[in-house]
Amino acid sequence: MKNPSFEDIQEARKHFLDLYHKYWLENALFTWQWWFLVITVILSWVVWWKVVDKQRIHLIFNFGCLMAIISVLLDMIGLNRGAWAYPIRLYWACIPPLVPYDLTYIPVVFMLIYQRYGNDTKKAFLAFTITSAIISFVIELFFMWIGVYRLYKWKTIYSFPIYIVVALFVRFLVGIFEKKSLKNT
């Protein structure tokens, strides 16, 4: 077999996207799981907007944006490595593939924790740990059960410490940003 050219790869990619688009139209779009994702995304952001501390919204939103960026990157790595897949997506050609998870559920939940416990290291760590356990061992399993998420080379136990480390890292970064901005005022 000859080495594939870039054009060969692009042709294979186009073929894959055409196949996935047909699959999405027939098996995902407007299913109850698809509607569940749509509704929970909207509700998550509405709840967040209602309860977010508007006085600290810039710090809280920065925290959420960093959580979302890291979630997207890790999700793309896992997906591209074949560790997991998403049979149901909101949009067939979307990167990240599970927008609700990476750009809604993870950042919203962790932003609310950051808002409540961001200044208390011990309470933040405990809240991040409990939330990470719930996400890893309940939410991920629920998404598998309803057919939105499939594991191939991954186990939910692997997700647990990653959520904690990412949340603590982002909390640390936002703390640095906050100190820098306070120095400059």
- Largest sheet features: 2 strands, antiparallel
Count of helices? 6
* Mean pLDDT, all residues: 93
Distance between the termini: 63 Å
The total count of strands amounts to 2
Which oligomeric state applies? single chain
Strand portion, in percent?
under 5%
Order of strands across the main sheet:
1-2
In percent, how helical is the residue content? Answer: over 70%
Shape estimate: globular
Radius of gyration, whole Å: 19 Å
Would you kindly provide a brief summary of this structure?
It is built from 6 helices and 2 strands. By secondary structure, it is mainly alpha-helical. The protein folds into 2 domains: 1-30; 31-183, no CATH class.
Task: Explain how this protein is built.
- With 185 residues, this protein is an all-alpha fold.
- The chain folds into 2 domains: 1-30; 31-183, no CATH class.
- Helices cover 75% and strands 2% of the residues.
- The chain has 6 helices and 2 strands.
- The chain has helices spanning 6-27, 32-51, 57-80, 99-117, 121-145, 156-183, and strands spanning 84-85, 150-151.
- A two-stranded antiparallel ribbon has the order 1-2.
- The chain is globular.
- It starts with 5 loop residues before the first helix and ends with a helix.
- The model has no long low-confidence stretch (mean pLDDT 93).
Notable traits:
6 helices; mainly alpha; 185 residues; 2 strands; 75% helix; globular; two-stranded antiparallel ribbon; 2% strand
Write the layout of secondary structure elements.
Layout: H1 6-27, H2 32-51, H3 57-80, E1 84-85, H4 99-117, H5 121-145, E2 150-151, H6 156-183
Antiparallel strand pairs: 1-2
